[in-house]
Protein backbone atom coordinates (compact mmCIF):
# COMPACT_ATOMS: atom_id res chain seq x y z
CA UNK A 1 0.00 0.00 0.00
CA UNK A 2 1.26 3.51 -0.80
CA UNK A 3 0.46 6.03 1.93
CA UNK A 4 0.98 9.70 1.17
CA UNK A 5 1.82 12.35 3.75
CA UNK A 6 1.32 16.04 2.96
CA UNK A 7 2.26 18.94 5.23
CA UNK A 8 2.02 22.69 5.08
CA UNK A 9 3.26 24.97 7.85
CA UNK A 10 0.31 27.38 8.09
CA UNK A 11 -3.36 27.62 7.17
CA UNK A 12 -2.38 30.29 4.60
CA UNK A 13 -0.37 27.78 2.60
CA UNK A 14 -1.99 25.47 0.09
CA UNK A 15 -1.46 21.72 0.07
CA UNK A 16 -2.89 21.48 -3.46
CA UNK A 17 0.47 21.06 -5.25
CA UNK A 18 1.33 18.12 -3.03
CA UNK A 19 -2.21 16.75 -3.27
CA UNK A 20 -2.16 16.83 -7.09
CA UNK A 21 1.16 14.98 -7.15
CA UNK A 22 0.40 12.31 -4.57
CA UNK A 23 -3.28 11.57 -5.22
CA UNK A 24 -2.39 9.87 -8.52
CA UNK A 25 -0.03 7.34 -6.96
CA UNK A 26 -1.20 6.83 -3.36
CA UNK A 27 -3.88 4.60 -1.91
CA UNK A 28 -4.38 6.93 1.07
CA UNK A 29 -3.44 10.55 1.80
CA UNK A 30 -2.93 12.21 5.16
CA UNK A 31 -2.71 15.99 5.49
CA UNK A 32 -1.17 17.96 8.36
CA UNK A 33 -1.00 21.71 8.90
CA UNK A 34 1.77 22.72 11.29
CA UNK A 35 5.44 23.56 11.33
CA UNK A 36 7.89 20.71 10.78
CA UNK A 37 9.75 21.89 13.86
CA UNK A 38 6.71 21.25 16.08
CA UNK A 39 7.56 18.78 18.82
CA UNK A 40 4.37 16.78 18.19
CA UNK A 41 3.11 16.01 14.69
CA UNK A 42 0.10 13.79 15.38
CA UNK A 43 -0.81 13.04 11.76
CA UNK A 44 2.78 12.17 10.80
CA UNK A 45 3.15 10.00 13.90
CA UNK A 46 -0.14 8.22 13.08
CA UNK A 47 1.03 7.59 9.50
CA UNK A 48 4.33 6.13 10.73
CA UNK A 49 2.47 3.87 13.17
CA UNK A 50 0.08 2.71 10.42
CA UNK A 51 2.78 1.66 7.96
CA UNK A 52 3.34 -2.09 7.63
CA UNK A 53 5.98 -4.20 5.95
CA UNK A 54 5.69 -3.84 2.18
CA UNK A 55 4.03 -0.39 2.42
CA UNK A 56 5.59 2.74 0.96
CA UNK A 57 5.55 6.14 2.64
CA UNK A 58 5.23 8.73 -0.13
CA UNK A 59 5.99 12.45 0.23
CA UNK A 60 6.26 15.16 -2.40
CA UNK A 61 9.31 16.99 -1.00
CA UNK A 62 11.92 15.89 1.53
CA UNK A 63 11.28 18.84 3.83
CA UNK A 64 7.57 18.02 4.11
CA UNK A 65 8.28 15.16 6.50
CA UNK A 66 11.62 15.65 8.23
CA UNK A 67 13.24 18.29 10.43
CA UNK A 68 16.89 17.61 9.67
CA UNK A 69 19.27 15.29 7.87
CA UNK A 70 19.70 13.23 10.99
CA UNK A 71 15.94 12.96 11.45
CA UNK A 72 15.46 11.97 7.80
CA UNK A 73 18.22 9.35 7.86
CA UNK A 74 17.08 7.88 11.16
CA UNK A 75 13.45 7.67 10.03
CA UNK A 76 14.46 6.09 6.72
CA UNK A 77 16.54 3.50 8.61
CA UNK A 78 13.63 2.75 10.98
CA UNK A 79 11.29 2.35 8.01
CA UNK A 80 13.75 0.00 6.25
CA UNK A 81 14.05 -2.10 9.40
CA UNK A 82 10.26 -2.47 9.40
CA UNK A 83 10.24 -3.41 5.71
CA UNK A 84 8.66 -0.10 4.71
CA UNK A 85 9.85 1.73 1.60
CA UNK A 86 10.09 5.48 1.21
CA UNK A 87 9.48 7.58 -1.89
CA UNK A 88 10.13 11.27 -2.62
CA UNK A 89 8.04 12.11 -5.67
CA UNK A 90 9.58 15.37 -6.92
CA UNK A 91 13.07 13.84 -6.80
CA UNK A 92 12.09 10.44 -8.18
CA UNK A 93 13.79 8.73 -5.23
CA UNK A 94 12.61 5.36 -3.98
CA UNK A 95 14.55 3.77 -1.11
CA UNK A 96 13.44 0.31 -2.22
CA UNK A 97 16.59 0.27 -4.39
CA UNK A 98 20.26 0.65 -3.38
CA UNK A 99 20.61 3.58 -5.80
CA UNK A 100 17.55 5.19 -4.22
CA UNK A 101 19.05 4.76 -0.76
CA UNK A 102 22.29 6.42 -1.84
CA UNK A 103 20.48 9.26 -3.57
CA UNK A 104 18.27 9.76 -0.52
CA UNK A 105 21.27 10.00 1.81
CA UNK A 106 22.95 12.63 -0.38
CA UNK A 107 19.73 14.63 -0.80
CA UNK A 108 19.00 14.59 2.92
CA UNK A 109 22.48 16.00 3.59
CA UNK A 110 21.94 18.70 0.97
CA UNK A 111 18.54 19.63 2.46
CA UNK A 112 20.14 20.02 5.89
CA UNK A 113 22.90 22.17 4.39
CA UNK A 114 20.30 24.37 2.71
CA UNK A 115 18.33 24.73 5.94
CA UNK A 116 21.43 25.65 7.97
CA UNK A 117 22.52 28.14 5.29
CA UNK A 118 19.11 29.82 5.45
CA UNK A 119 19.33 30.06 9.24
CA UNK A 120 22.84 31.54 9.00
CA UNK A 121 21.75 34.12 6.39
CA UNK A 122 18.78 35.11 8.53
CA UNK A 123 21.02 35.66 11.57
CA UNK A 124 23.52 37.64 9.51
CA UNK A 125 20.72 39.78 8.08
CA UNK A 126 19.39 40.50 11.55
CA UNK A 127 22.87 41.46 12.80
CA UNK A 128 23.37 43.76 9.82
CA UNK A 129 20.00 45.38 10.45
CA UNK A 130 20.87 45.93 14.13
CA UNK A 131 24.17 47.59 13.14
CA UNK A 132 22.19 50.00 10.95
CA UNK A 133 19.99 50.83 13.95
CA UNK A 134 16.93 48.85 12.90
CA UNK A 135 14.92 47.70 15.89
CA UNK A 136 13.93 44.05 15.55
CA UNK A 137 10.98 42.35 17.18
CA UNK A 138 7.47 43.44 17.93
CA UNK A 139 6.67 47.10 17.33
CA UNK A 140 6.68 49.20 20.46
CA UNK A 141 3.26 49.76 21.98
CA UNK A 142 4.06 53.30 23.09
CA UNK A 143 5.83 56.11 21.28
CA UNK A 144 8.71 58.12 22.75
CA UNK A 145 6.36 61.10 23.17
CA UNK A 146 3.79 58.98 25.02
CA UNK A 147 6.49 57.66 27.34
CA UNK A 148 7.77 61.16 28.10
CA UNK A 149 4.23 62.33 28.88
CA UNK A 150 3.64 59.27 31.04
CA UNK A 151 6.83 59.88 33.05
CA UNK A 152 5.89 63.51 33.58
CA UNK A 153 2.31 62.68 34.62
CA UNK A 154 3.55 60.11 37.14
CA UNK A 155 6.20 62.49 38.54
CA UNK A 156 3.59 65.19 39.01
CA UNK A 157 1.44 62.64 40.85
CA UNK A 158 -1.82 63.62 39.16
CA UNK A 159 -2.62 60.10 37.92
CA UNK A 160 -2.14 56.46 38.75
CA UNK A 161 -0.26 53.89 36.72
CA UNK A 162 -3.51 52.01 36.01
CA UNK A 163 -5.38 55.12 34.85
CA UNK A 164 -2.45 56.23 32.72
CA UNK A 165 -2.13 52.81 31.09
CA UNK A 166 -5.84 52.78 30.31
CA UNK A 167 -5.61 56.25 28.74
CA UNK A 168 -2.62 55.15 26.61
CA UNK A 169 -4.33 51.93 25.51
CA UNK A 170 -1.91 49.47 27.05
CA UNK A 171 -1.73 47.29 30.12
CA UNK A 172 -0.35 48.44 33.45
CA UNK A 173 2.43 45.84 33.11
CA UNK A 174 3.41 47.13 29.66
CA UNK A 175 3.63 50.69 30.96
CA UNK A 176 5.51 49.65 34.07
CA UNK A 177 8.05 47.56 32.13
CA UNK A 178 8.55 50.25 29.50
CA UNK A 179 9.10 52.94 32.11
CA UNK A 180 11.17 50.48 34.16
CA UNK A 181 9.34 51.21 37.39
Extended strand count: 5
Could you describe the largest sheet, including whether it forms a barrel?
A: 5 strands, mixed
Mean pLDDT across every amino acid position: 89
Order of SSEs: EHEHEHEEHHHH
Whole-angstrom Rg: 25 Å
Q: In short, what is this structure?
A:
The protein has 181 residues and is an alpha/beta fold. It has helices spanning 16-23, 42-50, 69-81, 98-131, 144-156, 161-168, 172-179, and strands at residues 2-8, 28-33, 56-59, 85-88, 93-94. It has 7 helices and 5 strands.
Description:
This protein is α/β, with parallel strands linked by helices. 51% of the residues lie in helices and 13% in strands. The protein is built from 7 helices and 5 strands. A 5-stranded mixed β-sheet has the order 2-1-3-4-5, with helices on both faces. The model has no long low-confidence stretch (mean pLDDT 89).
Q: What keywords describe this structure?
A:
alpha/beta
Give the SSE layout.
Blueprint: E1 2-8, H1 16-23, E2 28-33, H2 42-50, E3 56-59, H3 69-81, E4 85-88, E5 93-94, H4 98-131, H5 144-156, H6 161-168, H7 172-179
Parallel strand pairs: 1-2, 1-3, 3-4
Antiparallel strand pairs: 4-5
Helix pairs in contact: 3-4, 6-7
